[in-house]
Amino acid sequence: MMEKRVLLFTGIMTLTIALSAYAEEDKYINAKIIELESITVTASRTTRKVSETPASVNILSAQEIAQTNAKSIPDLLKNVEGIYTYDSSGVGSTGVVNMRGFYGGMSSHQLVLVDGIPQNKGADKLVDWDLISLDNIESVEVVRGPASALYGDNAMSGVINIITKKPKDKPEIRVSTSFGSFNTQEYGVSILGAYNKQLRVLSGVSYKTTEGFRQHCDYDRTHAEGKLDYTINDAQNLRLSLDYYEKERGAIPWALTEAQIAQDRRQARPGSENDKSGGTKSDVSITHAWDINDEAKTEAIVYYKNNDVDSFYTSGSAESTKKEQIEDEDAYGVLLKGSLNQEIMGLEHEFTAGIDLGKDYFNYEEYKAPYQQRGALQSDYAVTRGKIGPYLQDEIRLIDALRFIAGMRHDWVDFDFDDRKTTNNSKTEKMSKLTPRCSLVYMYQKDSNLYANYAQAFRTPTIGQMFTYGSSANPDLKPEEATSYEIGLRHRFNESLKSNISFYWMELDNEIWYDYASVKYQNYGKTSHKGVEASLDFRIVKWLSGFANYTYSRAKNETGSYSGKYLANIPIHKASSGLHFATEFGLSWDLAVTYVGSSYIDSTNGNKLLSYITADTKVSYEYKAMKIFLAIDNFFDRKYNSHGFVSGATKYFNPAPGETFTGGVEIKF
Fold first, then answer.
1. Among 319, 310, 71, 57, which Cα is nearest to 206's?
2. SS3 at position 516
3. Are the CB atoms for 98 and 107 separated by under 8 Å?
4. Strand blocks (E) in 100-164
5. Confidence of residue 40 (pLDDT cuts 50, 70, 90)
6. β-strand 158-164 against 110-114: which pairing, if any?
7. How many distinct helices (H) and strands (E) make up the chain?
8. What CA–CA distance (Å, rounded) separates 518 from 514?
9. CA distance linking residue 447 with residue 498, whole number of Å
10. Do 336 and 291 contact (CB within 8 A), yes or no?
């Protein structure tokens, strides 16, 4: 079987290279990268060239996204330096994203935005990655490192901003379908166009269904979206965005013991065979952008989000332990910002100021539900989380090539926990933090810079960690606070070669961690996160380009009983590399290889999650308005586990899928 894979792999590569070489007329010495420098709006909350940005930034364009076989945002980011991701479903229905050495079992230390609107849930700060569709994404901006001075609570390890496509002047209809392993099917239709010179429209519907890698983990999702862009005049624009998701799923693919994995790595946790859940998510936002003049701009966003889930969950191994959980979350927010260019005492200043206002209302009910029959009420509570975060930043051009950036933000966050079943448990908590930042960036040549920054960060505990995770909850948790130092170099050697490297050191107070020994969330005192992130992008000839990157993460406890021990589920080493072949007649081939080093799965560092290597490949052919593709993930069918923990004396792991196939077609009209 392995020999057949190697032969197929070699055949694809040989055919693509041969066809590419035949079609290519340029010589190696004339190969160049012809591209405009990337623009980021996330790193400074204003439009900036990457070479003017004092941060470690990756921008994935729509073209780069299309070259991958990503099924979700975590899948898309798995080959980005500084990021560790996994999805044990194998089909994009579950996912975890972690940046810069934070907790390997959650995705709650980075802020996730869609067109600038927060996506982290108020209840647990997690992100439903399966409810952020890859349909109609223009780009994904990843900013690593604390960004609390601009974005406040939750932007401790960085920010991921998913920017969707805008409606076009030219009408376009796109129809797509794909089929893959585990009876995975996807269908989509989108329409982009202009009603008149002022009004542009985007709408789309997609549907996904799969049996899932793990047994009883079937999944169905429907997504509908719509955007209206209205040009008020040459200076003002108004956008209305609507998103609606509906999903149903079977059991959650929980971790298994080593014996269970050896028996059948696709099995679900015993007792969860009849678990199921259903839910909806609705997002509505209105954005008003106003270019008042050449020096002043404003933007106002008003949004509303609703997330409802009704699930049946087996807490033990028998149907008699099944529970029904009903969750309802409503989130409202207003994001106001403005920028002003002004010369003061002969120096150019760009001021950015704004305020983020938000309110989350979370309601929860839990019933005994043996054999999915609702029984006695066990939990009934509501939590309100409010936040206010004004911020100010000044960017000063000291000389043409040298800029100094300083800013700060003050966050006020309050929690009101109302236990409607046991009123004595009700509690109110208030937290606040001032987070400054200062940076220096020197642009010593075109598309190249050297930068250094200092930043503080702030992250409150989640509602669940403080109040609602049963006996694991700890209402006395303190907010996490961090101080970070970073230096970086972004250098373009020539039009065919560019590189990035950054070194960071972050010290945290009161990092929150789940302690399996006490079965409770705890503040671990002081921890440190140190690391190196390096990348290289190159083009050898016109039809052959590639990338390589490496991440070193050292996350350790610095005080307490686990002082000197590594934090769990954080790989110390990670590396990725890839090649992209593209011909002038529409045939392309992509290959990506990822190495994830070993990590500890317990606080005592007595047990490890083994390292693994995966290889993904994709062949695409585009002719006029049609594009077809065949993709293979985990091409060499490696059997590995993506996450683990120890409970008592038993080790548990999340098994990852082996070789998976996806093929599809897209037609544009």
1. 71
2. coil
3. yes
4. 110-114, 117-118, 137-144, 158-164
5. confident
6. parallel
7. 6, 38
8. 9
9. 9
10. no
Judged by phi (left if over 0) then psi (alpha if -120 to 50, else beta), residue 289 lies in beta
Beta bridge partners of 297: 291, 339
294: left (phi over 0), alpha (psi -120 to 50) or beta: alpha
3-class DSSP assignment, residue 396: strand
Reported pTM: 0.92
d(CA 355, CA 147): 15
Cβ contacts of 346 within 8 Å, gap of 6 or more? none
Tell me the pLDDT tens digit for each residue of 74-98.
999 999 999 998 887 777 778 888 8
Q: Which two tokens stand for residue 80?
A: 């980005």
DSSP 149-181: HHH-TT-SSEEEEEEEPPPPSS-EEEEEEEEEG
Rounded distance, CA 190 to CA 100, Å? 36
Residue 346 burial by Cβ neighbours in a 10 Å radius (0-12, 13-18, 19+): exposed
Cα 59 → chain centroid: 13
Minimal CA–CA distance to 430: which of 494, 474, 387?
A: 387
Q: How confident is the model at residue 233 (pLDDT cuts 50, 70, 90)?
A: very high
Residue 114 has which token pair?
Answer: 């869609």
| Residue whose tokens read 């609602």 | 468
- Taking alpha carbons only, the member of 356, 339, 343 closest to residue 393 is 339
Token pair recorded at residue 99: 């940046």
pLDDT digits 0-9 by tens, 322-368? 999 999 999 999 999 999 999 999 999 999 999 999 999 999 999 99
Alpha carbons 245 and 446: distance in angstroms, whole number: 44
In this predicted structure, what is the pLDDT of residue 411? 96
Structure tokens at 493: 């050697």
d(CA 660, CA 655): 14
In the numeric block, the tokens 């045939």 are attached to 587
Nearest in space to 286 (alpha carbons), one of 299, 298, 296, 277: 299
Long-range residue pairs from 272-275, CB within 8 A, at least 24 positions apart, any chain: 272/216, 272/313, 272/314, 273/216, 274/216, 274/312, 274/314, 274/319, 274/322, 274/372, 275/216, 275/250, 275/251, 275/311, 275/312, 275/313, 275/314, 275/322
User: Other CB atoms closer than 10 Å to residue 401's CB: what's the count?
Assistant: 12
Q: How many other C-beta atoms lie within 10 A of the C-beta of residue 385?
A: 23
At 260, is the pLDDT very low, low, confident or very high (cuts 50, 70, 90)?
very high
Side chain identity, residue 88: S
Distance in angstroms (rounded) separating the CA atoms of residues 657 and 259: 17
CB neighbour list of residue 557: distance below 8 Å, 6 or more residues apart: 524, 525, 526, 527, 563, 564, 565, 567, 603
Alpha helices in 24-68 (DSSP H): 62-67
* φ, ψ of residue 22 in degrees (nearest 5): -65, -40
Q: Is 301:311 a contact under the CB 8 Å cutoff? A: no
Question: Which residues touch 304 (CB under 8 Å, ≥6 apart)?
Answer: 282, 283, 284, 285, 330, 331, 332, 333
- Identify which of 385, 318, 392, 389 has the alpha carbon closest to the alpha carbon of residue 125: 385
Separation of alpha carbons 372 and 314, rounded Å: 10
Tokens for 271, please give them: 């007792």
Cβ–Cβ under 8 Å, residues 50 and 39: yes
Residue 197: how many other CB atoms lie within 10 Å:
8
Nearest Cα residue to 113 out of 447, 396, 421, 358: 358
Phi then psi for 449, rounded to 5 degrees? Answer: -155, 160
Q: Which residue has the tokens 């980005």?
A: 80
Q: How far is it, in rounded angstroms, from Cα 346 to Cα 348?
A: 7
Provide the 3-class DSSP secondary structure of residue 47.
Answer: coil
Angle in degrees, CA 80, 126, 299, rounded to 5: 80
